[in-house]
Specification:
The chain is α/β, with parallel strands linked by helices. The protein contains eight helices and five strands. It has helices at 12-21, 29-39, 41-48, 53-60, 64-87, 120-131, 135-144, 168-181, and strands at residues 2-6, 25-28, 94-97, 112-117, 158-163. A five-stranded parallel beta sheet has the order 2-3-1-4-5, with helices on both faces. It starts with a strand and ends in a 9-residue tail after the last helix.
Length: 190
């Protein structure tokens, strides 16, 4: 089991093709977070007055306590769904993709974490273009994630970094080299 993590807009989704090419099943923790908005709707509305994603983003990226409350409500659901999905895979290799994997307490089930790194300015530009949000929102989200680190996973997980500075092709090639060195991951498919 592999975790694919890194700060927002570091380029995690760009690297998913490498895993798909090796036969991994992708579990998207961020997509499960969207599911959690519906599944935990009443608790979210009770706490925040809404379960709408953009409105929640405006609230939690301004207030650390609000972000902690959102995670306390949604993360148990996401964690449970990940375990449920893993239970259906019958031994197939899987990669769990998400910025906040370390906060989901998945370290005990991961064999390795691929930590995607990119310069702050590049991440801000990518997030602005991808999310169609204003600069204030993009910078706030980056600020909230400033302390995210590969070390958040603890000592029980092998952590490998992929730099995503130059081209997506170079980042994918770096990931391929890492996976080639690790014996418990599937080989590339021809």
């Amino acid at each position: 089991m592999v975790g694919l993590a890194g700060k927002a807009a570091a380029g995690k989704n760009t690297l998913l093709q490498v895993f798909l090419g090796r036969g991994f099943v992708v579990i998207d923790a961020d997509q499960l977070g969207h599911e959690a908005l519906d599944a935990c709707s009443s608790a979210l509305v009770d706490r925040f007055g809404t379960n709408e994603r953009k409105a929640l983003g405006r609230i939690v990226f301004r207030d650390g306590k609000a972000l902690a409350d959102l995670e306390a409500i949604s993360h148990p659901y996401i964690h449970s769904r990940i375990l449920q999905i893993l239970g259906t895979l019958q031994g197939k290799p899987a990669v769990i993709n998400g910025a906040l994997l370390s906060r989901l307490k998945l370290g005990t089930i991961l064999d390795a974490v691929i930590w995607v790194k990119a310069p702050l300015l590049a991440r801000l530009k990518r997030a602005k273009a991808r999310d169609d949000r204003n600069w204030r929102f993009v910078v706030r989200r980056a600020w909230v994630q400033r302390k995210l680190s590969a070390q958040d996973f603890g000592a029980d997980v092998d952590i490998h970094s992929v730099e995503n500075r130059a081209s997506p092709e170079q980042a994918r090639a770096n990931l391929e080299r890492i996976l080639d060195r690790l014996p418990h991951f599937p080989e590339r498919k021809p």
